[in-house]
Amino acid sequence: MSTIRFTDLALHLPATVPFVGPEANMRATGRPFRARLGANESGFGPSPKAISAMQSAASEAWMYGDSECHDLRMALATHHQIAPENILVGEGIDGILGNLVRLMVAPGDAVVTSDGAYPTFNYHVAGFGGALHKVPYRDDHEDPAALLVRAEEVGAKLLYFCNPDNPMGSWHSARIVQRMIDAVPEGTLLVLDEAYIDAAPEGTAPALNTENAQVIRLRTFSKLYGLAGLRIGYAIGAAPLIAMFDRIRNHFGVGRIAQAGALAALHDQTWLARVQAELTAARKMLAEIAADNGLHALPSATNFVTMDCGRDGDFARKLVQALMARDVFVRMPFVAPHDRCIRVSAGPPADMAVFAEVLPQALRDI
Amino acid sequence: MSTIRFTDLALHLPATVPFVGPEANMRATGRPFRARLGANESGFGPSPKAISAMQSAASEAWMYGDSECHDLRMALATHHQIAPENILVGEGIDGILGNLVRLMVAPGDAVVTSDGAYPTFNYHVAGFGGALHKVPYRDDHEDPAALLVRAEEVGAKLLYFCNPDNPMGSWHSARIVQRMIDAVPEGTLLVLDEAYIDAAPEGTAPALNTENAQVIRLRTFSKLYGLAGLRIGYAIGAAPLIAMFDRIRNHFGVGRIAQAGALAALHDQTWLARVQAELTAARKMLAEIAADNGLHALPSATNFVTMDCGRDGDFARKLVQALMARDVFVRMPFVAPHDRCIRVSAGPPADMAVFAEVLPQALRDI
């Protein structure tokens, strides 16, 4: 490496990753998971129609995907009753966040988020040299008022807000979020990550308003649509903002099978409704399992349930390790005081039964 | 857009894209292509085993892909007889190039390429504010000696070299490329794009040497493996260089179906050999069709044939348009003097027959 020259920025980045992948965990033990409940994937699976569409598209995989994601964008436009010019399809929310940060954040630029919120966003901000300012949660909720104040104070270019929230599962009503949107400071773009919106009660998402140039909203096929392995999500925003992505995105970056799968999944709203019903039942099961074991399930508007262990971070970390040692994959929030909790993805009854079986064993282990 | 703030760099980027996608071309005419021969995709298709692997993986698409691409990296390591630490799997060569430029090029940094070489590389360099220096081709070949001289002169951080070359289809022998590797100036990384290497004769790729920190080699599943729609490629380089990508890449960016398809494709070398044989026949057919119509096919070590029309760029552009008007998708080199040519992907006999039928009609049209 002596003679090649990285940027100063790259040289000063840490060699860490936001998440250890579940496959890496399995390789560490040499055993498969009995239940895969740590990455908020949808164990209910994607629509059978999406599976069928992906299988049909497999033999067409010799062709690049449509660089404009035209059919999917048109279908999303119809679905949301907005114009296709207001929609960007990208390589999952992770990919879109990376490009958004790249478009807006130069070294030293201020960005505001909540302390303990999505680490991959922070990873992108650090990766472009941005200065992250973190606002504490308030009662396990992101704190819109405090976030707005901080954004104004530091002159934030981006203000990240996830609703419903990961990792706590909490949420704010559309009314509160709309008030936040209306109060975004001059010069700030609100990044409203709605990855889990399909799991939230009616009245959580404010109406879409694509005239507002100060909000970008992020949606995904990775969560309730059950297509995390495809890498496809989308952003909704004002047309001039959406158009900016064309200057830097990988135009052929969204694959052909991914586009076909997402399109079929979007068209099968019946399946989505079924997953939502199964999810509601699974969250109830998880809350009961938690209570049976002396833990307290926090209310959730997501596809996971965050469980307060009533002790400190060390205890919760040991519990996660004990569950993993028994081949149940879960994760936990990274920072105090949230790290008193573990985070368990909702899944089909068989997975919930495994969790019910193993949780008391893991608690006894520690 | 009044109140949100893009970086100066983003604001000064052009709103252009390296390539108009074939689907966009079809939407413009409202008709499907009779032959899709413009994007150097493999009309021979992927291995049936890869199709089968992708179809099986479709029902597992609810899970994120392995963030370490472990199985594929191990298989590639075995295939190339190198260590997995020397292999980076990424979202196609396009995605890897973007991350490589991001790691190394700050605004104003010098980068050298050939005038008329891969525009997506130039797009990434411009996207990070690099200063591109272009060296002319010499007799339709990239010019290693001149590239080296220019890299030294301007203090290039990156020197891009594609072998075999796109868009001319020409190539240099392993001996010449090795001499180039040995002469890379201090402070420069040679980016050796070998997307088409599987289409080249024996003796085109120099031996891999992962001790050399001044070369990164790029390979893909998009071309002869027939998996352009999956978005998966890889880089081979010194371990410390490969490790740097972990600081900025989207760790879950390579999808689950993509990894499964690529792994199965790699394991089916019999299919690859069959495609190589079909390709050789198709290139021969294209050369004959060219000759029958007064064009001259340049020698090709790629999966396309570049045909000299013997006239100027305007003539070739008209020919491309005439072919497109008759629903035959081809492209052509962007810059003079290469733009005297059209570029036609090799494909199965039925596609070659369509080209043979339509080329004389298109020539009569103009």
UniProtKB/TrEMBL annotation, chains A, B:
<dbReference type="GO" id="GO:0004400">
    <property type="term" value="F:histidinol-phosphate transaminase activity"/>
</dbReference>
<protein>
    <recommendedName>
        <fullName>histidinol-phosphate transaminase</fullName>
        <ecNumber>2.6.1.9</ecNumber>
    </recommendedName>
</protein>
<dbReference type="InterPro" id="IPR050106">
    <property type="entry name" value="HistidinolP_aminotransfase"/>
</dbReference>
<dbReference type="Pfam" id="PF00155">
    <property type="entry name" value="Aminotran_1_2"/>
</dbReference>
<dbReference type="InterPro" id="IPR015422">
    <property type="entry name" value="PyrdxlP-dep_Trfase_small"/>
</dbReference>
<comment type="pathway">
    <text>Amino-acid biosynthesis; L-histidine biosynthesis; L-histidine from 5-phospho-alpha-D-ribose 1-diphosphate: step 7/9.</text>
</comment>
<keyword id="KW-0663">Pyridoxal phosphate</keyword>
<dbReference type="GO" id="GO:0030170">
    <property type="term" value="F:pyridoxal phosphate binding"/>
</dbReference>
<feature type="domain" description="Aminotransferase class I/classII large">
    <location>
        <begin position="37"/>
        <end position="359"/>
    </location>
</feature>
<dbReference type="GO" id="GO:0000105">
    <property type="term" value="P:L-histidine biosynthetic process"/>
</dbReference>
<keyword id="KW-0028">Amino-acid biosynthesis</keyword>
<keyword id="KW-0032">Aminotransferase</keyword>
<keyword id="KW-0808">Transferase</keyword>
<dbReference type="InterPro" id="IPR015424">
    <property type="entry name" value="PyrdxlP-dep_Trfase"/>
</dbReference>
<keyword id="KW-0368">Histidine biosynthesis</keyword>
<dbReference type="InterPro" id="IPR004839">
    <property type="entry name" value="Aminotransferase_I/II_large"/>
</dbReference>
<comment type="similarity">
    <text>Belongs to the class-II pyridoxal-phosphate-dependent aminotransferase family. Histidinol-phosphate aminotransferase subfamily.</text>
</comment>
<dbReference type="InterPro" id="IPR015421">
    <property type="entry name" value="PyrdxlP-dep_Trfase_major"/>
</dbReference>
